[in-house]
């Protein structure tokens, strides 16, 4: 163990300079991260941290052991190497594996700095403060999770509480951990919003001063009671409660076999439920921004390591292999998709900035833009100033300390030999200078991007040009381009979006075509998977459905007194994707443990006619299913399946608002 600690200290010493310089470079690039504490861990400790979701202490439960074993086997059989892990905290904590090469460590450190910036500035992470408020300056997630671990450990070890009862209760809650209202700021369960009770017709009759004779003949008391009860039931069904865990905290019970009825939760059960619900809200931000966050970190890592040469010459091949493995992972890769989306946003913004200037040149209009603009000439004019593009100790004299692109104080230090400018040329530049140095449209892979702008976009730009300023030449127009437009736009979007809203807003037809995205689905006719579509609308819808509610079914509470029998009525908000009914039944069994009385789940299933299936197979086409509403009921012993009334089926049918929304619609 002593040798291991010596190795860790040696590695920490080796990484001191890269850590300090990466943080400084991130800030020069315009990022504003939380401070980051870096920890050196060995291979086994890294696997433990991954199993624990990035933290050193979690509550006792078998899930962590399974996660640890899965990660260890992935590593052992070459199915995926863990380079780092970083958590959302202030300060953030990042864990580096001591066996990583220096190139890998540098890649991790630059990646982590961008993650810390995302944690600190994205509004979806801001929905969870420290559990007691929404001020992220007080966020101390590690301490919160450690307190939770100690509390649950105390219940597990309490001789008056059966350990199996605690584990079973945790299992039940974890089955529903994603049934929270992640679009609202975290609040204690008792602080949730109260529904407005429907108006009682009796009060309205009193206000109208209806005579007793009329009331007696037209509105008898029994009819008024039935109407009031029906209105209350309708209000519950039309206004479902999205935070299922909060509802269960307030109204849930446990079934007592001795008395044969539902009884109040024990204090430890309420405590455990609140703890797990709190943690579900804490981790919601990470689940909602996986693509955005990983893409953001990959973008800035690539720029720092490759474009800004943070990887030394002898490290670059190792780094290129590192990045290829990260971006080349099979399946839906959040690193690749996110990075490509951020690059697309940057390119589109920069293209719009350049086109806006060119449309102000005498003789250039949106109609003749592609015919009269020499795009090679524009590309050459956009190239960064040579004094900015290539900085060495010998070229420092070419930099003007009064230039806003130059950091005058750092330039003076570099000229005095206090800064190794050959190794860290970015130190003598400001964010403005770095934006010009790395302007996206000047990169070889993007040189044709300006010419691909559509006439429809040019027309929109021209339509809203209220400034009548004109340029005499293309050179004059390009000289006025704001090189920081793309980065500034990226930082703005990083503040407000999550995966669903970002994909909805920016996954365009151009993006889908350029990056060769397509959809695939399981074929009922052939019994295997096939390409379904490469249309942008289909790709977007498929991705939106996959990321809505963390990719899990959206379930809400529709009634806590269904049928006036104290039964729980849950509704699966159907969006065209059916539930796995057998898995749903297992969840209902766990939900029963948290309700203590019968539980119901409304959903929609797809049914296929055998004759239609046979015809579809012969003709190699997909059969058309019949969508049927069902209510699955579990009473603690057996399941029943009932047809769902048409009005209830309409209420659980999801519409576009479940994923086709903007941040302002979701943030409250």
Tell me what the structure shows.
It is a single chain. With 668 residues, the chain is an alpha+beta fold. The chain has a domain at 334-515. A hairpin with a 4-residue loop joins strand 4 and strand 5 (261-263). The two termini are 50 Å apart.
- Which outline best applies? globular
| Unreliable residue stretches | 130-134, 192-198, 656-668
Oligomeric state of the chains in view:
single chain
pLDDT average, as an integer?
85
Radius of gyration, in angstroms, nearest whole number: 30 Å
Strand element count = 12
Helical residue percent band: 40-55%
Distance between the termini: 50 Å
Number of helical segments with 4 or more residues: 30
Domain SpoVR-like C-terminal: 553-604
Domain SpoVR protein-like N-terminal: 13-356
Protein name: AbrB family transcriptional regulator
InterPro entries: Spore_V_R (IPR007390), SpoVR-like_C (IPR057008), SpoVR_N (IPR056174)
